[in-house]
Amino acid sequence: MSENIVPKDLAGQIQEKLDGMNLSQCLTCGTCAGGCPATGLMDMDPRKFVRMLALGLYEEAVNHDWVWVCTMCKRCQAACPMDVDIPNLVFFARSQWPRETRPKGILASCDHHIRSRGGAMGVPLDDFKFTVEDVAEELAEEPGYEDFKVYVDKKGAEYALNQNSREPVTEPDELIPLWRILHKVGIDWTYYSEMWGGENYCMFLADDKNWEHIIRSQVRHLEDLGVKYLINTECGHSFFALWGGLRKYNISHNFELVSIVNLYAKWIREGKLKVSSDWNKDLKIKFTVQDPCNSTRKSLGNYFADDLRFVLKACVGEENFMEITPNRNNNFCCGGGGGSLQAGYPEDRLIYGKKKFDQIMKTGANYCVVPCHNCHAQIHELSEHYNGGFYVTHLWTFICLAMGELGENERVYLGPDLEEFGL
User: Can you tell me the distance from the alpha carbon of 96 to that of 64, in angstroms, rounded to the nearest whole number?
Assistant: First the structure.
């Protein structure tokens, strides 16, 4: 437990931050703890955390390292009969730690984002532009993509797209499948230069000032470009950082924030994405999905989860889809959210994720399709750590495979059964 100095008026601050919520509303029923994968980690659980605050044990609760293991996935609140907002309590507890004592990984990612005005990996804009333009030139050499080009800050484009830093920094070939999809649909889109990174670790740091700064900077720039839609890439926390930030800080904007997953579904229904599951009729490879908490329970709900299933079934065959239980809004968090990947508690994170691992294993699926970068990294590690033997991929991989468009270097997360399929 940290030895931080907790403000003397903490009780008053808690009430103010939660709009006067009465902590005595907690019935101590334990529903929150019973459905939380973080229960028992560090000898703490959601019910115990709330009771400590209600009983005035403010310093012990707020300074507990568990607040960085909890992913703030909102499953506890969704199950609570009194709707006690435990995730907001955890966020507030994080915010009370002196900034320099918060987890170094999350802190560094937030500061990199602010300094670079790009993303959490601190990549300078010139490096980002060089990478995407270089990879785009390679794609333009393929038949059918001769006129493909990537734009940054194209004024008047209908769509703007954010980009998780992981692809341009560590796996640039993973940029291509999404580009193939956008090219096939034929939309007018652009990247943007100001805070182009989709991720937002200042939110996980509970740094309201910089979370808001990143969102407002993006909004000003996008308004100047005149876009009608901001497409959020396959990343749950980046969607919630935008969706939640726009609401929390009451930021007016003239564009519509949309998830790429919902657009996939729309374009397939409209016949603009011509996917087919015929490739899997004989192979009968089995698939399941992870419902990112930030895209489902915390924001778009089952609208996102249902479209996710529609898209995957269209690509692999409904008979080859294996449902995970529980699912959609009632899903279990995988343990990769809330900044946990960089919080510095890897053993607790892997124990947290065991419930998700067991869920996936029960489906018997060969692949878990994950439209979220943090979930992807966590579940990929879970499969390796617990010897699951299943593979973890992005959704865009199988959309392109189902269109016959997946390139040779775009298969890093596929198993041996599909490494060369269709080439």
Answer: 11
Contact 367, 286 (CB under 8 A): yes
Q: Architecture of domain 104-264 in CATH? A: 3-Layer(aba) Sandwich (3.40)
d(CA 119, CA 6): 31
Written as one letter, the residue type at 92 is: F
Q: Are 39 and 46 in contact (CB under 8 A)?
A: yes
Chain Cα centroid distance, residue 274: 26
Residue 237 parent element (H or E): helix 236-248
Structure-token match 């194209």, residue found: 154
Is pTM beyond 0.70? Reply is: yes
**Exposure letters 386-398 (e unless 16+ CB within 10 A, then b):** eebebbbbbbbbb
Span 112-132, pLDDT tens digits: 999 999 999 999 999 999 999
Alpha-helical regions (H) of 18-85? 31-34, 46-54, 58-62, 75-79
Q: What are all long-range contacts of 145-150, with beta carbons under 8 Å and residues at least 24 apart?
A: 145/180, 145/183, 148/179, 148/183, 150/179, 150/191
- Domain 271-403 listed as CATH 3.40.50: yes
Q: Which two tokens stand for residue 86?
A: 């435990």
CB 41 within 8 A of CB 66: yes
Residue 6 is given by DSSP the state: P
Mean pLDDT, rounded, for 392-415: 97
Tell me the sheet residues that pair with 408.
none
Strand partners, 231: 161, 258
At residue 308, what is the residue type? L
The reply to whether 271-403 shares the fold of 104-264 is: yes
Q: Residue ranges of the domains in the chain? A: 10-101, 104-264, 271-403
- Please list, in sequence order, all residues whose beta carbon lies within 8 angstroms of the beta carbon of residue 404, skipping any fewer than 6 positions away: 279, 422
Nearest Cα neighbor of 143 from 407, 356, 365, 390 is 407
